[in-house]
Amino acid sequence: MSSTITLRLPRELKDKMRRHPRPWSEELRNYIEQRIHSLELIEALDQIETRAKTRPTPDSTPLIREDRKR
């Protein structure tokens, strides 16, 4: 299922688009898909960074002391 969105453009930009006939709908759709993908990657990296900061670092002191006793 698809949805329709409306985009308001300045008249000068619309005139320039007419001078350069292209499949503008397809190009805009591709741009939006790429932008969403980039935003999702940034969000995933932020979550990974947050998890990495909150992960407790193990204290190896007891292990080292135990090993030295041997």
Strand and helix map with partners:
Layout: H1 11-19, H2 24-54, H3 61-69
Protein model, in words:
It is a single chain. The protein is mostly helical and 70 residues long. The protein has helices spanning 11-19, 24-54, 61-69. It has a domain at 24-53.
The helix tally amounts to 3
Which term fits the overall shape?
A: rod-shaped
> Count the strands?
0
Q: How many strands, what sense, and barrel or not for the largest sheet? A: none
> What is the H-and-E element order?
HHH
Q: pLDDT average, as an integer?
A: 92
Class by alpha and beta content: mainly alpha
Assign a percent range to the helix content.
Answer: over 70%
Cα Rg: 27 Å
Low-confidence stretches: none
- End-to-end Cα distance, whole Å, is 69 Å
Strand content: under 5%
List keywords for this structure.
70 residues, mainly alpha
In short:
By secondary structure, this protein is mostly helical. 70% of the residues lie in helices and 0% in strands.
